[in-house]
């Protein structure tokens, strides 16, 4: 857990894990660190919304469970704690592969140009700014994009690398999953029902 570094440095003062039904030792690890472990129905938007509502700190750093921050991130992130904006990380994958590099490059370009970072890039944001802009929606998919659209003009990149799992790309194929992601994004931006998108995404 890359958050250990932040806990030891005193940056992470409140640890909240909203679990959607894992069967590993996540709960034991979180409690051993003095964190708060919450069981929730498995819906990322709902889980994130729950976590935000429980948080009490002035700043919230939102991370997905399959994303890992680079070493020394806690030293580099300090300068972003006193700004009235949200910040996301630079995406990379946990394997070295041309298609992994292509996918992460596209994600970083999309984030910079269109201001549409995905949740696996992490989000550091003042709690006040997040709440004032409606927080996370409890929709089953695209909750990260929906929030980014409301925060347009207030999201910026940080030079901190976050590495996410490539397992789903390996299972489905890089081109197939990449194409599916783009199609779902376009449909969402055109106003498609998130529940229909969720069913199409996970059943295809």
Key terms for this structure?
204 residues, alpha/beta, Spore Coat Polysaccharide Biosynthesis Protein SpsA, Chain A, three-stranded mixed sheet, two-stranded parallel sheet, 10 helices, 7 strands, 18% strand, globular
Fold topology:
Layout: H1 3-9, E1 16-19, H2 26-32, E2 36-39, H3 44-54, E3 59-62, E4 67-69, H4 73-76, E5 86-93, H5 98-114, E6 123-126, H6 127-132, H7 143-150, E7 155-164, H8 167-172, H9 174-189, H10 194-203
Parallel strand pairs: 1-2, 5-7
Antiparallel strand pairs: 3-6, 4-7
Explain the overall architecture:
It contains ten helices and seven strands. It is of the alpha/beta class and 204 residues long. It has a single domain, classed as Spore Coat Polysaccharide Biosynthesis Protein SpsA, Chain A. Strands 4-7-5 form a three-stranded mixed β-sheet, with helices on one face. It has a two-stranded parallel ribbon with strand order 1-2.
Overall 3D shape: globular
Main beta-sheet annotation? 3 strands, mixed
What is the CATH C-level name? Alpha Beta
Q: Give the helix tally.
A: 10
Oligomeric state of the chains? single chain
* Count of strand segments: 7
CATH architectural name: Alpha-Beta Complex
CATH third-level topology:
Spore Coat Polysaccharide Biosynthesis Protein SpsA, Chain A
Task: Return residue spans where pLDDT drops below 50 for at least 5 consecutive residues.
Answer: none
Structural class, by secondary structure, is alpha/beta
Overall mean pLDDT stands at: 93
What series of H and E elements makes up the topology?
HEHEHEEHEHEHHEHHH
Helix content: 40-55%
How large is the radius of gyration? 16 Å
Termini separation (Å)?
Answer: 32 Å
Binned strand content: 15-25%
Domain Glycosyltransferase 2-like: 14-88
InterPro entries: Glyco_trans_2-like, Nucleotide-diphossugar_trans
Keywords: Cell membrane, Glycosyltransferase, Membrane, Transferase
Organism: uncultured marine bacterium MedDCM-OCT-S04-C694
């Amino acid at each position: 857990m890359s958050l250990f570094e932040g806990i030891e440095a005193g940056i992470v003062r409140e640890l909240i894990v909203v679990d959607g039904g894992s069967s590993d030792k996540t709960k034991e690890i979180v409690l051993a660190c003095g964190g708060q472990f919450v069981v929730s129905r498995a819906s990322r938007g709902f889980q994130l919304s729950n976590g935000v509502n429980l948080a009490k700190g002035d700043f919230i750093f939102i991370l997905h469970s399959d994303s890992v921050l680079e070493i020394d991130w806690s030293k580099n992130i300090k300068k972003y704690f006193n700004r009235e904006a949200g910040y996301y990380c630079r995406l990379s994958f946990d394997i070295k592969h041309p298609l992994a590099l292509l996918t992460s490059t596209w994600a970083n370009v999309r984030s910079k140009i269109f201001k549409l970072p995905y949740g696996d890039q992490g989000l550091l944001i003042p709690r006040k700014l997040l709440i004032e802009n409606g927080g996370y929606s409890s929709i089953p998919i695209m909750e990260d994009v929906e929030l980014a659209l409301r925060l347009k003009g207030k999201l910026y990149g940080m030079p901190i690398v976050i590495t996410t799992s490539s397992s789903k790309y390996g299972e489905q194929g890089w081109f197939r999953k990449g194409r599916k992601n783009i199609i779902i994004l376009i449909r969402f931006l055109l106003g498609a029902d998130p529940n229909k998108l969720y069913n199409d995404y996970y059943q295809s």
